[in-house]
Design a protein that fits this description.
This protein is α+β, with helices and mostly antiparallel strands and 356 residues long. It contains 5 helices and 16 strands.
Length: 356
Amino acid sequence: MRLRHAVIPVLALAGIAVMIFTVYSGQKELPPAPPVARPATPPFSDFIAGAGLVEASTQNIGVGADLAGVVATVLVKVGDQVRAGQPLFVLDDRQARAEVAVQEGHLRVAEVNVAKLKALPRKEEIPTATARLAEAKALAVDAQQQLSRAERSAVALTPEELDRRRHAAAAAAARLAEAQAALDLLTAGAWKPDLAIAEAQVTAAKAQLNAALTQLERHTVRAPVAGEILQVNIRSGEYLSAATMGTPPILMGDTQVLHVRVDIDENDAWRFSPGTPAVASLRGNAEVKTPVRFVRVEPYVVPKRSLTGGSSERVDTRVLQVLYAFDHDELPIFVGQQMDVFIEAAPYPVVQAPPR
């Protein structure tokens, strides 16, 4: 019993001691955590700081197709260097090829029709027409002779018989004229309006064939500029919609020279001058930096979109976008990375009080 009465006060004193130690330890100021990466330091006494986003010198081009269809073949992979006009991927073009074959057939028919008209008259048809003309001449001569003999005959003929012979002679003369006209028409060749219509049909067939070839060519998507393939977001067998939004099928651009798009806060925009020096540092390693060359200013101030994560950053501001260039070999950097850019700026003007 005495031992139990002695233990309880000891435990209470130990608990109080632990509580005092805990409270004392919690009141100590913890040292600030070191930064993950050393922040970039500006090389100028007066400067404008901005966050920059690396992009291709041609800007990042999202290449897509203006036709909907199944992807037949993807001809490039990420990292490939392509030339302007090089095929990137091909959509299923079987129907387009069939339409080209149909239009080629129509063109061939139209061309053969023109050749047929230009080849007239056929030499095989002339002897037949000549023979018919000779036959018509003989019949006409015979009918005229019979009419002449009837008119000179001493034997009186009835008026009906005499009229019949006159009509027969007239019919024979008409058949002679018809045979002569048929031969003349045959030897004259094709009628010019018919030939003009046939040649116009050839022109129309060529235009339809060119349209079909253009439609076939649209199934092959080609590189608009020379550059590097940055992303390939399609695979063979996938259905590609012509109204693709968001992620483009292929992202590419010229990466031999890179651009960094710097967002300058609208409050500092008045201090910016295109001819001033600028230095860009790699985000995450401030020691990796390079001077950058001024390219151009986007003259339209836009709402801020890129977020740097700074506690003092405002998202409701507008920024002036300035593009600078540097050679890709100067920095081990990738398109899409962020950079810290410092631009030399003139100091704030000193406002003097007006004289009294």
